[in-house]
Each structure stands twice: as structure tokens, then as C-alpha cells.
Design goal:
It is a single-pass membrane protein. With 385 residues, the chain is mainly β. It is built from one helix and 26 strands. The strands form five sheets. Strands 1, 2, 3, 4, 8, 11, 14, 15, 16, 20, 23 and 26 form a twelve-stranded mixed sheet that branches. A four-stranded antiparallel sheet has the order 7-12-9-10, with no helix packed on it. Strands 19-24-21-22 form a four-stranded antiparallel sheet, with no helix packed on it. The chain is globular. The chain binds 2-acetamido-2-deoxy-beta-D-glucopyranose (11 copies). The site of one 2-acetamido-2-deoxy-beta-D-glucopyranose (NAG) has 6 residues, from strand 5.
């Protein structure tokens, strides 16, 4: 017999005073190939990459009107005889008094400028194969691409490397920007970062259709992509004002929801058009009643397996499983609870693939390191930022 989860956690909201001040990012944001640091219109400080890497060639992107981070890129020569990896070395913070490893959100972003199709290559973090970078579909759709991982700092530095792979294409690996952001200890803390890292598959704000939710609303500049639904989208009639959720989601993700029709279940595919390889995944779902001082009961099923059955209040609930088995396309079903007056709803969700970490850190360049790579399917998100 198979169980579809090992642990399931439910966190009801307790009231804490809201922090009104803007949070500062701890970490570095690197805009590859710019010559000077600058602050963008969100208030984020971007540094040139010259102090983090010595190899590669700077290129200007000719497409006009791009976000500054996409208007330059660094590209690395692909050598079919001797494929190499090219690494950014990032200093990580170590709290020597704490046994907890600090973990970082690492996001690499890409916008290819031609000619031809974008090169396909590998990303390697501290010797672990993170993902294949294939931006072709996004490029053909006129979009940028990004890949995000939550990775523990196990030494004084973390290496984020691009590596050509003769099995894919012969083009030069390239990168537009690299973000390295320290997360607070409570964020995603159900994951054992001594053994695992988390690769983002989707982070969605249900019922939203506008802009991606990000910094400064999200203090770590996580991207919450709008997940529109013309029929079932609802806006909350009250604002959540305090945040005791361990994952510290931006409170704005609770302002919109997908709400089922009264008395009927609602099923939809999430993440959309992503077929997952059979494995264990971290899934967190966020709920808050759209009405003030209200509460409703509901059930949520993932591929027919019950994920949650209980109450959702105006103050909010997060339900997460650090190890949930998924395979293929994923269907989320919102089913009414015993109180049929208020239909079920959902506000936001995150799903990550779990990446097993190797003990061995590969420091050498060259073909050899490929022999200890571990398999992991690509994770990709769409949208020009
Ligand atoms: C963020 O940085 C600014 C400038 O250094 C500082 O004034 C402010 O207090 C910081 N905010 C927080 C929440 O730490
Ligand atoms: C940065 O400076 C280098 C050397 O001076 C130059 O080749 C490169 O084009 C400059 N890049 C930008 C984006 O100005
Ligand atoms: C990139 O653009 C900057 C100014 O926008 C220019 O100074 C620089 O020479 C360009 N670099 C290359 C490699 O074309
Ligand atoms: C590719 O690598 C081989 C072996 O190290 C070297 O002999 C050759 O010069 C390299 N080719 C280029 C274009 O750098
Ligand atoms: C570590 O603990 C010692 C003794 O409790 C304290 O003096 C020191 O400031 C702490 N260091 C850090 C980085 O918190
Ligand atoms: C290329 O594919 C072959 C066959 O699947 C595999 O043995 C080899 O390790 C792959 N090479 C790289 C660099 O991933
Ligand atoms: C990259 O993506 C494109 C478009 O989805 C696909 O045709 C191609 O086979 C992919 N390349 C690799 C090496 O997987
Ligand atoms: C995660 O963080 C929360 C809030 O600090 C704490 O209450 C909880 O015990 C932590 N869980 C684990 C597994 O460390
Ligand atoms: C929620 O907060 C936003 C931004 O502060 C504000 O525009 C909106 O009117 C608020 N909504 C309600 C229902 O109070
Ligand atoms: C709603 O769910 C809660 C918690 O599961 C339960 O205690 C309560 O009885 C339920 N309410 C109704 C009306 O079924
Ligand atoms: C990794 O290290 C742990 C603890 O030292 C050990 O139990 C485990 O067998 C090692 N795994 C591999 C793949 O070497």
C-alpha cells in the first residue's frame, strides 16, 4: 500500500503585530555584465558580476525595453572537446552559534538575444546537478526564464556553475542575472536541508491576473505568479494584516482567491502544463476566508488524495507537506465542507521538487564531474519580468 504523504502540517494563524517597515534583502543580487552597481525601481541593489567570476564574455542585448537585468548577459565559451563548468562563487553567512544551516534562495534568470536558438546547458550548485537550463520555449514566446532553488550553505561559499553538456546543444552557456538571498530559519523549515534542497516548480497567487507579486511585498523577492481564472476569481473584502506563517508569504497573496461555485467541487490543473516525474515534492497551500470575521470548512484533494479537510478562517491557514508524491499532471480539487453556505477557496500555493544532496563536492573542471551528476528534471517558469 502506498501513502501519499509522510507528514502533513497544518498551521493556524496566531495574531502578531504586522511589521510595517520594508525588509532589506540579506544577500547579493548580481546583474551579469553590467559595469556599475545600481538600485532598481523596486529598491533592490544590483551588483556587477566582476567580483564573483573571472571567466566569460560580456554581451549587450539588443532587444529594447527590457528590464535592466536582461539588457546584458555573460556568456561562456563552449568547448566540445573539453566541456567545462564556469562558477560564480558566493560568500555565505555562517552562524557559528547555531546548528541550523542557513539556506539561500538562488535564482538564475535568462533572456537570450539570438542569433539562432538559445543554448541548452546544465546548472550545478556545490557539485550537485540542479537542473538543465532550456529557455527555448520561453525564448520563442518572447519571454525571459528563471530557475529557483532553496539551497543550504554548507561551507563558507556556495558555487553556482553553468556547464555545457554535449548531450544538449553546442552553444555557449549564458546568464542574465543571479540572485542569492538568505532566508530566515522558519522558512520551509520542515525540509531537512542537511540532505535536501528544493527546486521551485510553481509559486502561484490564485485568482490574480495582474503583476507578479514580489519585492517589496515579498521580503525575499520570491515571485508569486498570477494564476488567473475569469470565472472563479474573487478579491478579498478584507486585508490580512499580520503574518505568523512560517514561510512568511507576502500578505498580498491573500487578497485574491479562486472560489468554487456554491455546493460544487472545483477541479483545476496546477501547476499548469507541467508534467512531473514521479518523486516526492514539497507542497504548501495558503488559504484565508475572503470575508472578514468568517470561517468556512473545505477539503482539498491533490490527484484525488485528500490533502486537507478542515476550517479556513479570515486570519488564514497554511497547510504543507514536505514530502508528497506527485507524478505527471497535477489536479487540485476544492470540495465543499459540511457548511455548504460558503464555497471552498484557495489563495496561493507553492510546489517544489526535492533534490538529494551529494556529500561529495566537485571542485574540478572537466568531463569527470559529469559522472557523479544526479538526475533532476528541469523546472521552469514563464514570463517576462
Ligand atoms: C533597511 O536598510 C535601511 C538602510 O540601511 C535601514 O534604514 C532600515 O532600517 C532597514 N530596514 C530593516 C527592516 O532592517
Ligand atoms: C563594461 O566595460 C567593458 C570594458 O570597459 C566593456 O567592454 C563593456 O562593454 C562594458 N559593458 C557595459 C554594459 O557598459
Ligand atoms: C554595451 O553598451 C554600453 C552602453 O550602453 C557600451 O558602452 C558598451 O560598449 C557596449 N558593449 C558591447 C560589448 O557592445
Ligand atoms: C578546447 O579544449 C581543448 C582541450 O583542452 C583545447 O586543446 C582546445 O584548444 C580548446 N578549444 C578552444 C577553441 O578553446
Ligand atoms: C556566540 O555566542 C557567544 C557566547 O554566547 C557570544 O559571545 C557571541 O557573540 C555569539 N556570536 C554570534 C555570532 O552570535
Ligand atoms: C550524455 O548521455 C549519456 C547517455 O545517456 C550519459 O551516459 C552521459 O553521462 C551524458 N553526458 C552528460 C555530460 O550528461
Ligand atoms: C529544449 O526545449 C525545446 C522546446 O521545448 C525542445 O524542443 C528541445 O528538445 C529541448 N532541448 C533539450 C536538450 O532538452
Ligand atoms: C519552524 O519554525 C517555526 C517558527 O519559528 C517553529 O515554531 C518550528 O518549530 C520550526 N520547525 C522545525 C521543524 O524546525
Ligand atoms: C487592502 O490594502 C490595500 C493596500 O493597502 C488597499 O488598497 C485596499 O483597499 C485594502 N482592502 C480592503 C478591503 O481594506
Ligand atoms: C469545521 O471543521 C472544524 C475543524 O475540522 C470542525 O471542528 C467543525 O466541526 C467543522 N464545522 C462544521 C460545520 O462541520
Ligand atoms: C553522506 O554522509 C552521511 C553522514 O556522514 C552518511 O551517512 C551517508 O552515507 C553519506 N552519503 C553518501 C552518498 O556518501
Amino acid at each position: 500500500m502506498e501513502t501519499h504523504f509522510r507528514f502533513l502540517f497544518l498551521l493556524l494563524f496566531s495574531l502578531l503585530p504586522s511589521a510595517l517597515s520594508q525588509f532589506n534583502i540579506s544577500g547579493v543580487l548580481i546583474d551579469c555584465s553590467v559595469n556599475t552597481s545600481y538600485t532598481d525601481n523596486q529598491g533592490l541593489r544590483w551588483l556587477p558580476d566582476s567580483q564573483f567570476i573571472t571567466s566569460g564574455v560580456s554581451k549587450n542585448v539588443s532587444t529594447p525595453g527590457l528590464f535592466t537585468t536582461f539588457s546584458t548577459l555573460r556568456s561562456f565559451p563552449y568547448n566540445a572537446t573539453r566541456p567545462r563548468k564556469f562558477c560564480y562563487t558566493l560568500s555565505s553567512y555562517r552562524d557559528l552559534n547555531s546548528s541550523r544551516v542557513k539556506r539561500y534562495l538562488i535564482r538564475t534568470s535568462y533572456f537570450f538575444d539570438g542569433p539562432g536558438l538559445p543554448p541548452v546547458f546544465d546548472l550545478i550548485v556545490d557539485g550537485n546537478l540542479w537542473t538543465m537550463v532550456n529557455t527555448t520555449a520561453d525564448y520563442l514566446a518572447g519571454s525571459a526564464s528563471y530557475y529557483e532553488v532553496v539551497f543550504p550553505a554548507r561551507g563558507k561559499t556556495i558555487n553556482v556553475c553553468l556547464a555545457g553538456n554535449p548531450n544538449y546543444t553546442k552553444g555557449d552557456p549564458f546568464i542574465s542575472s543571479l540572485e542569492f538571498i538568505m532566508l530566515d530559519d522558519s522558512v520551509y523549515n520542515a525540509t531537512d536541508f542537511g540532505k535536501k534542497a528544493m527546486g521551485l516548480i510553481a509559486r502561484s497567487k490564485f485568482g490574480a491576473s495582474g503583476e507578479t507579486e514580489r519585492y517589496p511585498n515579498d521580503r525575499y523577492n520570491r515571485y508569486w505568479q498570477p494564476f488567473p481564472d475569469q470565472i472563479h476569481a474573487k478579491t478579498s473584502t478584507h486585508n490580512i494584516t499580520s503574518s505568523a506563517f512560517w514561510n512568511l508569504p507576502p500578505l498580498d497573496v491573500f487578497n485574491t482567491a479562486i472560489v468554487a461555485d456554491k455546493g460544487n467541487p472545483l477541479a483545476f490543473q496546477w501547476p499548469q502544463q507541467v508534467s512531473l516525474q514521479r518523486s516526492t515534492y514539497y507542497v504548501a497551500l495558503y488559504f484565508a476566508d475572503t470575508l472578514p470575521k468568517s470561517s468556512r470548512n473545505l477539503s482539498v484533494y491533490i490527484n484525488g488524495y485528500q490533502f486537507y479537510d478542515g476550517a479556513v478562517t479570515s486570519d488564514g491557514v497554511v497547510v504543507f507537506s514536505p514530502e508528497w508524491i506527485l507524478s505527471g499532471l497535477t489536479t487540485l480539487t476544492l470540495a465543499p465542507g459540511s457548511n455548504l453556505n460558503l464555497p471552498p477557496l484557495i489563495n496561493a500555493g507553492e510546489v517544489f521538487g526535492l533534490l538529494d544532496l551529494q556529500n561529495l563536492t566537485i571542485t574540478r573542471d572537466g568531463m569527470d564531474f559529469f559522472s557523479v551528476m544526479i538526475g533532476w528534471c528541469g523546472i521552469k517558469l514563464y514570463g517576462r519580468l
